Amino acid sequence: MNANSNQLSFLVKAGAYPCIKIPSGTILNTITTLFAGPANAGLITDILFRNNASVVVSLNLIIVPSGQTGGITGTLYTGAYYITTIQIPANAGTNGTTPLASLASLVPQLFDLDLAGNRVFLTEAGDTLFVQNPAALSADINIVVKARTF
């Protein structure tokens, strides 16, 4: 079964919440892998961002289908798989007053609704999700991908 299946029920194999750290001092245009698609399909319920900087940080979201290079070579992205740029609020998730930034809240149109009304972002087998920082980072960015595989 893949994400285009017309079946109404499916078995989720495993859940994972990988945490990715993009460290302070990361040079501009660095490509970081967030989620490497599993053998069948993947379901992302949200991606959470913690910004340790006192300024807003922009990140480009890129998804490259299985078998495509997508223009990703080192730290340069020139392909056609750019999705959107997101703005992570200053101090998001670090000071007790600014909550973690949620991709489902920042860009809700990227998510579909499942039968229960939950937001889900489906990936096909082998799809890879990346972020790119278009400016050098002055503080750490921590990212948690809330994902399930089939």
Explain what the structure shows.
The structure is a single chain. With 150 residues, the chain is mainly beta. The chain has a single domain, classed as Jelly Rolls (Sandwich), CATH 2.60.120. Helix content is 3%, strand content 46%. It contains 1 helix and 13 strands. The protein has one helix at 103-106; strands spanning 14-16, 19-22, 30-36, 41-51, 57-64, 72-73, 76-77, 82-88, 101-102, 112-113, 119-124, 128-133, 141-149. The strands form 3 sheets. Strands 1, 2, 4, 9, 10, 11 and 13 form a 7-stranded antiparallel beta sheet that branches. A 4-stranded antiparallel beta sheet has the order 3-12-5-8, with no helix packed on it. A hairpin with a 5-residue loop joins strand 10 (112-113) and strand 11. It is globular. The model is unreliable at 4-10 (pLDDT under 50).
Estimated helix fraction: under 10%
Q: CATH class, please?
A: Mainly Beta
Distance between the termini: 8 Å
Biggest sheet features: 7 strands, antiparallel
How many runs of DSSP E, i.e. beta strands?
13
Q: Under the CATH scheme, which architecture would be assigned?
A: Sandwich
Beta-strand proportion: over 45%
Topology-level CATH name: Jelly Rolls
Structural class: mainly beta
Mean pLDDT: 84
Gross morphology is: globular
Please tell me the total number of domains: 1
Element order: H for helix, E for strand? EEEEEEEEEHEEEE
Weakly predicted, low-confidence segments: 4-10
Q: What Rg is obtained from the alpha carbons, in whole angstroms? A: 16 Å
Number of helices: 1
